[in-house]
Amino acid sequence: MPITRRAFLPATASMLAAPALAAPQMLGEQSPPLVLGPGVTRVTANMVVKVDLMLQPGAVIEVAAGRTLTLLGGLIAPLGHIFTGPGRVDLGRSRIASAHPEWWGAAPGDGGRDSLPALQACLRSHPAMRLLAADYYISNTFVVERGFCSITGAGFRGTQPGDGTRLIVTNGTADVMRVGPETSPGGVNAFPQNIAVRSLALSRSVVPDTAGGRMPAGLRAQFLLFADFREISAFEHGAGFVARGLVRSTLTDCVAFRSMTGAQSGQLWRGFLLDGARDIGLAGGNASIFLRGCNATIGGAPALADPVGLQIEGAFADTFITEFETSGVPTGIRIDGKTALIGARARHGHIDLHLVLPIIDQCASVGIDILDTSPDALIDVIDPYVAVAPGAKAALRLENMRGLATITGGQLAGAVNLAAGGRAVGLLASASSGLQVGGLKILEHARPAALTGCSGFALRLAIANPSSRPGASAIVLRDCEGGTADVLISGQNSAFASGVRVEGSAKRLRIDATTISPGAVGDAGKRVTLGDRPLAVPSRIGDLAVVGV
């Protein structure tokens, strides 16, 4: 006998005592589905439906306050508003692969309706939410704290309706999404686990309001274990992505973009911010966080103050960045150890940072900036590519970097800056120690390398200016000690005023001039100079040694 709509109206005491509608247990046979026709069906008691449920167009189920409708079978229904009322619908144990917020009244494409309540209700009901290739307007932050859940859209990077899935917040101070609890729930094992968000764009309909130091974000992810964010774009925010307290978690193919002028003049902007400034009980602000193939870009002239593609600040232990790319962002990557701020946490919080194949194109300030790290720092930069734009200060800069930092391979391109009359430095270091550079190539820079007040360094560089004569020395070592420079310098005739120029105090320095081209520095006597004084090769003055042939 088919079950009718009257079965949802618990009018009798016996029905209230046993609200579950159990399908007959008939081996090899399937019970017929429960079919609801047009109209409103009210659920006024907790109810479990074990058979499949089919809703015809126009059918609506209204669940009363404090009541739960649990579906254990399948659901066949139009992609429209079928669940209403303040009660709860539980699809988590059903045979439904994923739920749609349209069932709770989401209005894709309608900028006049708030889809946030529907998104929240959908995720409460089912651990897998599926979004259409459409725009969902929300009045405030969509908060996701449910562990073992997934939110999947139909494509990212979209800037027009129908270009994939967009969540669009209409609030200038709100994040679009916050994944994870507002405050730490305690130890790592108390963090929500296994949350996956994929294939959607996080946007806003109004300029971000950063008054009072706010930084409204596209995605704010925090206090999560085994989280996975993939193919997400974040457009026009104070920060595209903010990560704090992510443990063994990944951001893959995520994109931050900014072109909109801020509500306040001179807004800060961060494409990605890995926040390790606050103590959350981990060595770093995150623990085993992986960024893979992510991108930050600025378009137009949004009049931003100090924009940075990727900022890693405070304690950064166990951070792995692979193929991160920026385009048109003044500072591509900034690593700011904030040693004084984090205090003793720096001892374990400044180790295990890896930048692999970073691609920094047309930076107008600094390509990769490493600042204020502790003597315990361990940093690897592998095969960087940095192209400096007009106005840039340096491709790679290290300032108050203590510890051990290694730059292996890589290419620094300065032709665009140089053609515009720029004086960018390829490798610029000051008050730093423990720097090792091996196989770095520096092309067409006005000042290829300059170190001031540095100690305990080892440089193996290849420098070439085949098309220009900027007139400066290829390398300047000022007030340095305990360092070696083994450099290949080439270029057109008299490309550089000298090869390696030593200024100020020079303690325990060793310079190998073998592969410095005499033609590129005017003549052999200018391969190494002490101030303006040419030094013979080989020679020794105090504990400054020049070797080579």
What do you see in this structure?
The chain folds into 3 domains: 1-96, no CATH class; 113-382, Single-stranded right-handed beta-helix, Pectin lyase-like (Pectate Lyase C-like), CATH 2.160.20.10; 397-549. Helix content is 5%, strand content 45%. It contains 5 helices and 45 strands. It is mainly β and 549 residues long.
Strand fraction equals over 45%
Low-confidence parts: 1-29
Distance between the termini: 101 Å
Radius of gyration: 30 Å
Q: What is the CATH architecture term of the largest domain?
A: 3 Solenoid
The CATH top-level class label of the largest domain? Mainly Beta
- CATH homologous superfamily title of the largest domain: Single-stranded right-handed beta-helix, Pectin lyase-like
Number of separate structural domains: 3
Biggest sheet architecture: 36 strands, mixed
Q: Give a count of the beta strands, DSSP E runs of length 2 or more.
A: 45
Average pLDDT, rounded to a whole number, is: 93
What fraction, in percent, of the residue positions are helical? under 10%
Overall, the morphology is elongated
Structural class: mainly beta
Write the layout of secondary structure elements.
Layout: H1 13-17, E1 34-36, E2 39-43, E3 47-49, E4 53-55, E5 59-63, E6 68-71, E7 75-76, E8 83-84, E9 88-90, H2 116-125, E10 128-130, E11 135-138, E12 142-144, E13 149-152, E14 166-169, E15 177-179, E16 195-204, E17 217-225, E18 228-235, E19 239-252, E20 255-258, E21 270-276, E22 287-292, E23 295-298, E24 308-314, E25 319-322, E26 325-327, E27 331-336, H3 339-342, H4 346-349, E28 353-356, E29 359-363, E30 366-373, E31 378-382, E32 385-388, E33 394-401, E34 404-408, E35 411-413, H5 415-419, E36 425-430, E37 435-443, E38 447-452, E39 455-465, E40 475-491, E41 500-512, E42 528-530, E43 533-534, E44 539-541, E45 544-547
Parallel strand pairs: 1-4, 2-5, 3-6, 4-7, 5-8, 6-9, 10-13, 11-14, 12-15, 13-16, 14-16, 15-17, 16-18, 17-19, 18-19, 18-20, 19-21, 19-22, 20-23, 21-24, 22-25, 23-26, 24-27, 25-28, 26-29, 27-30, 28-31, 29-32, 30-33, 31-34, 32-35, 33-36, 34-37, 35-37, 36-38, 37-39, 38-40, 39-40, 40-41, 41-42, ...
Antiparallel strand pairs: 42-43, 44-45
